[in-house]
Amino acid sequence: MEELRWKQRFENYQKALSYLELALDKEDVDEVTRAGIIQFFEMTLELAWKTMKDLLNEEGFEVKSPRETIKQSLQYGMIEEGHLWLDALQKRNLMAHTYDQASAVEAEDLIRNEYYPLMLALQSYLENK
C-alpha cells in the first residue's frame, strides 16, 4: 500500500514539475506568468516533500514534518544540498505572501536558478527507484 502511495504521489509530482517547466520556458515573462511560476513552484515543492515522506515511510523511517523529511532524505541519499531544500521551504512560505513586483522577480530567479534544478534531480532519483 505504501509503495503504491509514493508512486501515485510521484506521478502528481511529475505533472506539477512539467507545469513548472512550461511556465519557466516562456520567453516573455509578464506578471501573470511570474505568478504562475510561483504557484507551480509552491505546488511542486509540496508534492516533493510529501513524495519523499511516503518513500521514507515505505523504507521504515518515521518522518512527519517537511523539515524532518528533508533532513532524513538527505541522510538517506535521496537528495543533495539539503540547505537549499530547507531554504526553498522557508521561501515558499514567504512567497505565499508576496504581492510586490520586486519580490516576485526575486522569487522567480530563485526558483529558476536554485530550486528547479533540485526538483529535477529528485525526479531523476525517483525515476530510478
Number of domains: 1
The proportion of residues forming helix, as a percent range, comes to over 70%
Which regions contain 5 or more consecutive residues with pLDDT less than 50? none
Strand content: under 5%
**Which class best fits the helix and strand makeup?**
mainly alpha
Number of separate helices? 5
Annotation, overall tally of beta strands: 0
The main sheet comes to: none
- SSE order, as H and E? HHHHH
**Can you identify the CATH superfamily?**
Nucleotidyltransferases  domain 2
CATH fold-level label: Four Helix Bundle (Hemerythrin (Met), subunit A)
Kindly provide the radius of gyration, computed on alpha-carbon positions and rounded to a whole number of angstroms.
15 Å
Named at the architecture level, the CATH assignment is Up-down Bundle
Mean pLDDT, nearest integer?
93
Look at the structure and give the CATH class: Mainly Alpha
Protein name: Nucleotidyltransferase
Organism: Persicobacter diffluens
